[in-house]
Design goal:
Radius of gyration: 25 Å
Number of helices: 16
Distance between the termini: 20 Å
Number of domains: 1
């Protein structure tokens, strides 16, 4: 059930009781509206058996709220709570009977209307949950969810009623983008580790806030009993920075059964992020896709589908002319991924750029495993990519590389090129016949080739 709230949430209690067997999804379409977490929890305290019916839960809100620092409370400080005293006491009773750790902490947070406390308490009652999607406004400083996950994997009280999340298969969590919004005691990287090892979780989509984990990124486990091997088969990782490969490497080392990986990263190219040199006014951008190839060694025998997405925002720069910085991009190699069948990667991630540009067919195809069936090249690097790739250069590289592709990738069936609409328009103005030329190149190579418009990325959480 999807609840597009536009008024006071109490009137929806009846609907919740009748329909939430199909799942509850809170996703307001426009304004910053108080989420109905507490009203849903109130319904469950009044009808405990209904908690067994909820198989899917989503609180996503409006992503713009991340940048507006939306408050993490359900009612304003100093105002009257939107729950009666008896309703709040019933929820505190849930904390006691479930034997949640740090009882006083929960009581205080519930009294203040803390969104995270209500969300975590709600989750503690949903023992049959199969899908979970929490957006940014439901994951800020969430030490309550941290406590819940840690005890789920390592119960310390045999009489506790805490859920083990034995049925939870699909998880999508997008925490707050700004690291400074989180308390010092918050152990974000441990939460990733817990999610990876929940026994039934198969797909995980998580947004990494690298400010909090990039230094000394090593997983640790506080209990003497080691965790079982992760059963995760599909993983989507997203960051808003140009990441350290150690982050990816540490996570992949914990997911030996992974078959699908979507890795999206990016950043802002301005004087604060790309090594601006005030003496010479020269900027330099470095991407080393080769390091990512090394991190993939942990899943080289299982990975079948890999997608790299580079999302870049170019600040303070009109792109009527070539950006005034030097690009140094080293290409990736996926030769050791012996099971890989589907690869999506930006042009620059595979062909390189500038002084690292790949020229020979041997060098191009030797970076792919023989198992590859579907290859897709995308733009990446924001508007700057228009100056790194022109239609003539793209066609020359493809024509050269397709001359002997069967010797290296005999199972290849399709080559796709994914471009922004503006790029297609710009290329066509420069070379009106480039699409026909590409078609002839692929026809001579006897390979199916498609030109696609760049699509918005969909969360792996929704992919089956």
């Amino acid at each position: 059930m999807c609840l597009p709230f536009r008024g006071h949430a109490k009137r929806y209690d009846g609907l919740l009781s009748r329909f939430y067997r199909a799942g509850v999804d809170w996703a307001p379409s426009y304004e910053f509206i108080t989420p109905p977490v507490h009203f849903l929890l109130r319904t469950i305290t009044e009808n405990p058996s209904l908690s067994m019916s909820i198989k899917s839960l989503g609180f996503t809100g409006w992503i713009k709220s991340v940048y507006h620092n939306a408050p993490g409370t359900l009612w304003k400080a100093g105002s009257e709570p939107e729950l009666t005293g008896s309703e709040l006491n019933a929820m505190k009773h849930l904390v006691r009977t479930t034997k949640l750790p740090e009882e006083k902490l929960w009581f205080s947070a519930l009294g203040k209307g803390d969104v995270n406390a209500f969300v975590a308490l709600l989750l503690s009652q949903l023992t049959e949950l199969r899908r979970l999607h929490l957006g940014p406004d439901y994951y800020k400083e969430n030490e309550f969810l941290h406590l819940l996950l840690s005890r789920a994997l390592c119960p310390r009280d045999p009489t506790s009623e805490l859920p083990m999340f034995l049925h939870l298969e699909h998880v999508c969590i997008s925490p707050a983008a700004e690291g400074k919004q989180l308390g010092k005691s918050y152990n974000y990287k441990s939460d990733i580790y817990y999610l990876l090892h929940l026994p039934a979780v198969r797909t995980l989509d998580v947004e990494l806030a690298l400010e909090r984990v990039v230094e000394d990124f090593q997983f640790s486990w506080f209990h003497s009993k080691p965790l079982t091997t992760s059963n995760l088969t599909a993983l989507a990782l997203r960051t808003h920075k140009i990441p350290d490969v150690a982050v990816l490497q540490a996570i992949l080392a914990a997911t030996p059964n992974l078959r699908t990986l979507h890795y999206e990263f990016g950043g802002f190219f301005d004087t604060n992020f790309v090594g601006y040199n005030p003496a010479t006014d020269i900027r330099e951008v470095n991407f080393d896709f080769g390091k990512f190839s090394h991190a993939l060694r942990h899943i080289q025998k299982t990975l079948k589908k890999l997608k790299f997405v580079v999302s870049v925002l170019d600040l303070f720069m009109p792109f009527d002319e070539e950006p005034p910085w030097e690009w140094k991009i080293r290409k990736a190699s996926f030769r050791d991924l012996s099971m890989l069948e589907d690869l999506t990667i930006p042009f620059v991630g595979y062909f390189g750029c500038g002084s690292h540009l790949t020229e020979s067919p041997l060098e191009i195809w030797s970076g792919l495993p023989r198992s590859i069936r579907h290859l897709r090249f995308t733009e990446g690097l924001g508007e700057a990519s228009a100056f790194l790739w022109c239609p003539e250069r793209c066609l020359d590289l493809l024509e050269t590389s397709l001359q002997d592709w069967k010797s290296f990738t005999p199972d290849l069936q399709c080559l796709d090129i994914e471009l922004k609409k503006d790029t297609v328009k710009r290329w066509t103005q420069r070379n009106p016949g480039w699409q026909e030329e590409l078609g002839l190149i692929c026809e001579r190579a006897k390979l199916s080739c498609n030109i696609e418009y760049e699509r918005l990325t969909k969360n792996i959480y929704y992919v089956q």
